From TrEMBL:
Transmembrane segments: none annotated. This is Glutaredoxin family protein. The keyword Transcription regulation does not apply. It comes from Candidatus Accumulibacter affinis. Residues 79-137 form the Glutaredoxin domain. It holds the Pfam family Glutaredoxin. SUPFAM superfamilies: Thioredoxin-like (SSF52833). Residues 1-24 form the signal peptide. Keywords: Signal. Residues 16-51 form the DUF4124 domain. InterPro entries: DUF4124, Glutaredoxin, Thioredoxin-like_sf.
Length: 170
């Protein structure tokens, strides 16, 4: 009898550990009763709000909980980092984005055609690293210009949802 109780207890503990990392995020969308504007928020709507819709997304174990403001900035102003292999300045550019917690995609042009296309998109010579935030871009690595561009897009000034790579390496 003691063995079956211990087995049940072990099973319950195992189930709790397996499900503890799974969570859900809810985003609400509604029409504000006072202004008539559409509001999207991670907070529940006030009483009297019309056309309330709530979206729930499940996140699994190990997935970062990206804050609402970062998700919004990413949807409106996606970030693309243009780099090349072995580029020391490119590592600094990546580190700047990582410190700020900015999700980004990285592209490394490999051919003359790709470099020419990048130069056309950036409006001049293709200096690497370069960044595109939404429709705006900065040619070459200029931390001040990059920070201003990221601030204008609404990205956070520091990574709020995870350990910075530099802290993990220490």
């Amino acid at each position: 009898m003691r063995t079956s109780t211990a087995l049940r207890f072990a099973h319950i503990v195992a189930v709790l550990f397996a499900t503890s990392g799974v969570g859900a995020e809810t985003t609400y969308r509604w029409i504000d009763p006072g202004s008539g504007h559409t509001v999207i928020s991670d907070l529940p709507p006030p009483p009297g709000a019309r056309q309330v819709i709530h979206y729930t997304t499940n996140t699994g174990v190990g997935e970062p909980q990206i804050p609402y403001a970062v998700r919004q900035a990413t949807e409106k102003f996606p970030v693309v980092l243009y780099t090349s292999l072995g580029c020391v300045t490119c590592k600094e550019a990546r580190a700047l984005l990582d410190r700020r917690g900015v999700p980004f995609s990285e592209r490394a042009p490999n051919s003359e055609e790709e470099l020419a296309e990048l130069a056309r998109q950036l409006g001049g010579e293709a200096l690497l690293p370069s960044i595109r935030v939404g429709r705006q871009s900065v040619r070459g690595f200029s931390p001040t210009a990059w920070i201003e561009l990221l601030d204008a897009a609404g990205y956070p000034s520091s990574a709020p949802y995870r350990v910075r790579p530099s802290e993990a390496a220490e």
